[in-house]
Amino acid sequence: MSRGVVAIVGAGPYGLSLAAHLAARGIRHRIFGRPMAFWAQIADAGGERYLKSFCFGTSLSTPAPGFTFADYNAPRGLETFEPCSMANFVDYGRWFQQAQAPWVEPVDVASVERSGDGFTVALHSGESFAAAAVVVATGLAGYAEIPAVLAALPPHLATHTSKIDAFATFKGRSVAVVGGGQSALEAAALLREAGAEPQLIVREEAVGWQTRVSPRRTLYRMLRSPISGLGTGPKAWALVHFPGLAHRMPDRWRVAFVKRHLPPEGAWWLRPRVEGKAPIHLGVALAAARPAAGGVELVLRHKADGGETKLFVEHVVAGTGYVVDVDRLGFLSPGLRRTIARLAGAPKLNATFESTAPGLFFVGPAAAMSFGPMFRFVVGAEYASRQVSGRFA
Asked: Between β-strands 197-202 and 133-136, what pairing exists: parallel, antiparallel or unpaired?
């Protein structure tokens, strides 16, 4: 790799953490994006929104002491275990950015193209510059997954949860929420609390709920089910404390593990805001969706007997999560994307998060298929930042 500037695309938790580590090593870099923009958009949609993960497992990373989420919350009298407000997390991330990466450039990257053994990076401001390496740290932005059956509906009839600007705009309207995970369950709660009439459409036979974890535990409980930044239990503990272990697994095993780990379920604090508050259609699949006068006609297929039920609503919200797909990264040139080997649509990465396109790195959720489920969450930012900054050093 030629010596020169490193370009970081994205100013969320992973991008900001990497910038802090690169600065500590004296490595020249530029970082682009609006700090915590993805999280801020979700938090600003209104209602009581909280992180599903433990607060202590949602810290951005820097070699400097005193910048964990708990370091920010504790002196302000805010929650340090769970649940932590999403708006609070955005404030923390921006505080971290101002202290650890004040050089963030709030402009979007328009394109990245191969140029010799480096890259040409073009910004929406009109500037272009040469970069020796590029790190994609765009988080979940651009990866919203909408089922094919809903994809043909116009935007005024169907919306992904991440694209909702304000839940209050649905006041007085009937809304079907598709999905049984945290995103869908929280959307149903927020819609009802904003005055809408939501109904949940869940493929599973029952809604899964997490149980509340007490921070005060017996020695037996701590040994049997240790707490880590990824949750409770030996598996989560091992993933956090040996973050490079999953990368050594055969690809097919790791990909299958990532897909089945952490099934759809809701946080314990969300349960009383959903159960008994909105109709829930269990064990049904969305078979069809077509525009109808004043809304959408849905066809629900019952998994038990194959029977079908029609449901009319004024809008559909897809709480169907995210799927990483390199081809959705439009700022990477088509030629560059073609040189990236894939694992289930995500980039195949080496031990330092470098793709098969030399000099092009991916951190965050895009790295999960290569490194395991921990990297779908903020808790993976420290390991990724140390590995990537160490590679450049």
From this structure: unpaired
